[in-house]
Amino acid sequence: MAELNINERQAGDVTVLDMSGKITIGEGSVALRTAIRRLLEEGKKRILLNLAGVGYIDSSGIGELVSSYTAIGKDGGQLKLLNLTQKLRDLLTITKLLTVFDVYESEADALNSFK
Amino acid sequence: MTVDTTALSLPSRIDTVATAAAAVAEFVGRLGVSDEAAFGIDMAVREAVTNAVLHGNRQDDKKSVEITLKSLPDAVEISVHDEGRGFNPEEVPDPTAQENILKTSGRGIFFMRTFMDEVRWSIRPGGGTTVRMVKRR
Predict the structure, then answer these.
(1) A70 touches B at CB < 8 Å
(2) Cβ(A50)–Cβ(A35) under 8 Å?
């Protein structure tokens, strides 16, 4: 089983990536980077990461989230986060990134925020 | 009380991070530490081993990462040794400073210090850098 599983679906013009597993150095971080690069190449710039199934992230994974956020922003798009686990929320809090990312607990609210 | 010690020597590859984390989880699991402490130890070990593989040994096949796990009466002590030239931890920028928040790297040492009670680096006389981390029970 892959370290990080990513399932892509479309909700209007927002691409939702349902993620489960670990975003850690190596396979997990690379999988996220590859997915985001591909979406940008396809012109999909409104991206919602559903992190409900991500129970673990390390500094490399957090770096990849930041990298994704800035790459999408530079391309004129938006990256938002949905359903943070408590551990991930705690890590984003101590790194002061929780205020940087647009974070939602309801998918409907998250999707509406792109409009 | 006896001191339970486990030593590992692992290759300088990215997958060593997961191998080390699994070995530490098994060691810590036997000690019956809290889930919160185990999480913190896991985070810190992954970051320490990542640093040893990437920055210390620069993924050089000829160099290894040595990990020592000790169960002390009042704490768990973990040492991670690489064969690199070392660095000054005081010169590592604070990743939570406003100008660094959006940097894509530089949070590993911050996590090690956040999740462990003591973190100290030393240069071995024979070469290489050791980071010794303690989590009190």
Answers:
(1) yes
(2) no
pTM higher than 0.95: no
B25 CB within 8 Å of a chain A CB = no
Q: Which CATH architecture has domain A4-113?
A: 2-Layer Sandwich (3.30)
pLDDT (tens digit per residue) in B50-97 = 999 999 999 999 999 999 999 999 999 999 999 998 888 889 999 999
* Dihedral angle computed from the Cα positions of residues A28, B89, A99 and B38, in that order, rounded to the nearest 10 degrees: 60
All structural domains of chain B, each given as residue ranges with its CATH number in brackets, are: 4-136 (3.30.565.10)
Q: Which amino acid is present at A95?
A: T
Task: Map out the domains of chain A as residue ranges.
Answer: 4-113
Task: From chain B, pick out residues whose CB is under 8 angstroms from the CB of A26.
Answer: 14-15, 17-18
ipTM of this complex? 0.91
Crossing angle, helix B35-51 and helix B15-31, to 10 degrees?
Answer: 150
